[in-house]
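idk why but the lab printer keeps eating my pages so im just putting this in chat instead. protein + flavin-adenine dinucleotide:
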Amino acid sequence: MPYYGHRLSFGTLLDPVTDPPERAVELARLSESLGYDLVMLRDEPHRPDLLDAWTALTWIAGQTERVWLGAMVQRLHRRLPAVIGRQLASLDLLSSGRAEFAFGPVESLNEVEALDEAIDIVRAILDVAELGTVTIDGRHFPVMGAQRGPLPQHTIPVWLSGSALPVLELAGRTADGWIGTAAELPLANAVIDSAATASGREPSEISRIVTVQAGDPLLPLVIEHGAGIILLDSNDPAVIERFAREAIPALRVAVDEARADLPAVVPAKPARMRAKRREGIAYDAIPITLQAHAVEPGDAAYARLRSNYLRGGSPGLILRPGTPEEVAEAIAFAREHRELPFSVRSRGHGISGRSTNDGGLIVDLRLMNKVEILDETTRRIRVQPGARWMDVAAAIEPYGWALSSGDYGGVGVGGLATAGGVGWLVREHGLTIDHMRKAQIVLADGSILETSETERPDLFWAIRGAGANMGIVTSFDFEVDPIGQVGWAQLVLDATDIAGFLQAWGSWIDNAPRDTTSFMIMGQQRSARQMYAHVLTVIDSDDPETIVSRLQPLADVARVLQQRISIETYADVMANASDHYHQGQGDPAVRSGLLNQITPEFAEAASRMIQGGGSYFFQIRSMGGAVADVPPEATAFVNRSAKFSVVAFGPSRSRLNAYWNEMTPLFDGLYLSFETDTSPERLLDAFPQPALSKLQRLKEHYDPTNLFRDNFNVLTGVRSEELGVR
Ligand SMILES: Cc1cc2nc3c(=O)[nH]c(=O)nc-3n(C[C@H](O)[C@H](O)[C@H](O)COP(=O)(O)OP(=O)(O)OC[C@H]3O[C@@H](n4cnc5c(N)ncnc54)[C@H](O)[C@@H]3O)c2cc1C
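predcted complex ->
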């Protein structure tokens, strides 16, 4: 009595007839509306009375929302497997991860050999985590340098059909599923199971899909022969409807009764995926609640999640909780793997925070991305860490509100709101953390706590500037500002005299009213004769005259080479990131310093660095204003007197540091979000005493085993030995 543990699902197997051509779409939509899980089309290129299944599926994907969509590819020799791979991946992307497929039956040994080759090719095309193109010197389908991808949305299983012995053996050796008729199933199971076992696989890796006609007895297929998916082979809407309304509910009840006393069975991951697992991770012990969204190196989604925006990584497991309770479970799993690298990720723009690693665990919070309005009169909102700042801006813009965050809409709430938040409105409205009124955090021991000025105020103090050391923040309550449209100026200025320009720009913004915040960026110097600076400025006003009056003095700072000035909502200014997944590589070299003034000495040193190629991206952000209204001891973001935040990205650590070290004495602390130097001395730059000692005390209390250590770990080299933690 085999039971492979697959969830019982139902589908329809349709002929995509040409007469009328919309029939397949209608039947697919009917199937979806009746609750079927899968619609499978026969792909028979030799039949003029059928539509091309792939084209029809694309059309159907656009008119359905939930149902999986598959093609049953017949006549393999008329198809190119590399093309099937790309069609599948494209359909999967367009349908948000709903593509499935099966190879139709073959008979001769020669055809089975071709099928084996075709499977390898399709899998290689879908395996975007591997580098390079696909070359397979096959006898039937030689492939030379075929492009992988596009990267599908989910791991697409390969199903085979047919009852010939070699096909069944092949299914046992390599397939993810087998499709056959009710009559074929018992014998097929026996062959598939023994072939699977003989090649080191678990029989439960292969799901059993049975095609049935209305009226076939169903219960034995499921209970005695382990069928996981039942496919009704019919193009008749009345039959499809009756089966959904009568046969399926009755079968579910009968199966539940028959299995009531059986232990739960979880199907095994395919051996080829298990082969990619990393040492030391108890994959089979992942809590059930986290399994559905967990991603490991063999999964298709791995390529989307392995790296962050700037860094490459190859973690062993990515857990994606959806609730604070699931975060607690993920943390418990991380505690059990304390010796492995551990990273926390909201939306993966960490620079100081690594948010990826090699061989370890990641808790990725992107599924927790809600933005809620709590109270319109007090302008309170609640935001989860996996939201991006452009999502927050868009959600509150209809209320005439905005919350100063950063300059890039793709940055995550979690990373920025636990560190500071130096954004487009910082001089007028302060740091993002200054708007925080409450937070929910999950600690290393799994407890879920609320914290605010009145509830555990010390923890609340620490979260606002050093949150990554304390736990995983699962929601933030903010009080936001009434902000209408703003002036948005994007200028390119002549900065050939780099030092002179920096001082003039610094003096302009230092003397500008608080409603004006400006960020200045210089790239690599391409020619000794010319240097440009991008000056991006937001003026918190929708009055054209005010905007012009704020910008006018810039004309005296340097020659304006290009300008674009508009009046837009803050949400429009922030809508500047794409949805593309992160493909960071390597490990960036970035340094941060805070300045009270752009002195001639600093300007000269910065000029030497840029001219000498020490930095390819050099940015100064104006701060000051409202940042300094908050006392330094009020939050763990202590360096509040600074008027400028300086950031330099270098081509290499040594090249950048050679110039940066010259400037170090001129800085008054740093903003940790832009610092990649992990030496213990940097801790005091970020958290001048008594803040560091206070953080260390709180760390001992809230995270005594130093589980959270991927971002400005306050125990680094300071008291970790004393505490006996690594
Ligand atoms: C293109 C770009 C533009 C930026 N612009 C600005 C800017 O204008 N202003 C500014 O202030 N900063 C800016 N930053 C820095 C940014 O704020 C930080 O890198 C921030 O950590 C990114 O947040 P994230 O959630 O996307 O990052 P992640 O990589 O997901 O997280 C970074 C680190 O934050 C910690 N962390 C993340 N989520 C949580 C959580 N829920 N609870 C506790 N700790 C958590 C972890 O230690 C993690 O390693 C920018 C960064 C980039 C790459």
